[in-house]
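Final report, results section. Input specification for complex C-07:
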Amino acid sequence: MDIREIQGFLYFFFIVFITVILYGYIVHLYRSEKKGKRDYEKYSKLALDDEPTSSPLEPMEDNKQKEQ
Amino acid sequence: MQNPSIEYDYTVAKWFSYLAILFGIIGMGIGVYIAFELAFPELNYVFGQYSLFSRLRPLHTNVVALGFTLSGIWATWYYVGQRVLKVSLKESPFLNGVAKLHFWLYFITALLAVISLFARYTTSKEYAQLEWPFDILVVIIWVLWGVGIFGLIGIRREKSLYISMWYYIATFLGVAMLYLFNNMEVPTYLVTGMGDPFHSVSMYAGTNDALVQWWFGHNAVAFVFTVPIIAMIYYFLPKESGQPVYSYKLSLLSFWGLMFVYLWAGGHHLIYSTVPDWMQTMGSVFSIILILPSWGSALNMLLTMKGEWGQLKSNPLIKFMVLASTFYMLSTLEGPIQSIKSVNALAHFTDWIPGHVHDGTLGWVGFMIISAIMHMAPRFFKREIYSKKMLEAQFWLQTTGIVLYFSSMWIAGITQGMMWRAVDQYGNLAYSFIDTVTVLHPYYTLRAIGGLFYLTGVLMWAYNFYKTMTAAKQIEKEPQFASPMAA
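Structure output:
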């Protein structure tokens, strides 16, 4: 097997690998939503609800409480 | 949990907005002048050597890309960053100080950059012309911005980072990496004791230098003209229209797609050059794939307006942003087409290339910065926008200008490419260079007029902004969505 052939195989498997990663990410996004782990769409509110009087969507304190 | 009202500090955002307007006028003013020089060469000699095209062209590109655009990016960062993280710069005197230092050091460096380029100090690397002492200043400016970003993230109240934040962070990291590697240079005077103290030579030689340069050059387009502008549109379009992003998941997917693909596309600047063939092919292939994440973001923005297209009629800021998104789509389709090897054989070195660059920069970058600053103005000054009519007129004038610009350059570029490679039956070139120049003259004139239209629009924008700041009707409360404007 010469260098050209090795390059060809590497190229092919690299393309397969990144395609799997890409679709894996899409599946991950939809599956997390379906399982109720995370609602991604609610983060749109971060831009809309940013008035000086708005409360944080997910306050930092929540994080600390979870850790405790 | 009810939060006490946060008082956002817009001081630095305002300063950068002023600077964006100032650099916009200077950079585009020079651009229009050199466009007229190409059509009417006598203009080259109006101010002796100081008005030569070759002297002014780097000034134009640097002032619009690293002056106008960066100022616009930072104006929006110091506004959006506080709001989506729900924390005020007032809460941290340290970060506030860093932000102000960031502004002043940038302002001083920008002035030094203009003077040094005008005085012919240049590394001759496109968009990286600044000589080594100024590069060091740029690195310090960048570090200050990084401290600002991550400092603000460190004291935030909002746990999740909005998608615009991802794009601002990517801008910071991307440019830091590109700038450091492409500006590796040896100051000749310090090393050999000879030559000018400001002069340096690149650490890379020959083809390697070209490769690193265009890895940088194309990704400067990515991380200055694309990524931070997407950060802007993901905040300002939903906010101005009151519509949530059409699909937040698509915004995340497009983000990672763009990050992965963009960095490999730079090789398309060196097709048919001495770089290895596989690299040229890779540059082409990745450029084509780049359509997907680019259109992902752009379509996401257009779909955000679903059911709300009436706003396009009533709100000129929405017009600017929707057209910006559309020009982004046009530009990100045109670029990949130009990077296909057979098309590139025709397009390379012709006027089609600056045509492509300008439908992206004038239509996408310029329109987004203009509309973002006009969205912020009523919030900065607690006044409504001075004149809606003027904003409308500016929109149509500038849109006409852009269409004149790119259509004339499309025709000029393809004509030029065809003439260069036309041969007679014996294989001799059919045309000499001057034949193409004669044919292209009307298109060069049209391009300059298009640029003049756009520049006039920028002056109208500056006037409208100034009047908004000083004379418009005061408003009691910060508007939530659509920016209030007087007829």
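Chain B touches chain A at residues 1-3, 5-8, 83-84, 86, 156-160, 162-164, 234-235, 238-239, 242, 244-245, 247-249, 252-253, 256-257, 260, 278, 478, 480-481 (CB under 8 Å). Chain B has 16 helices and two strands. This concludes the modelling results for the funded period.
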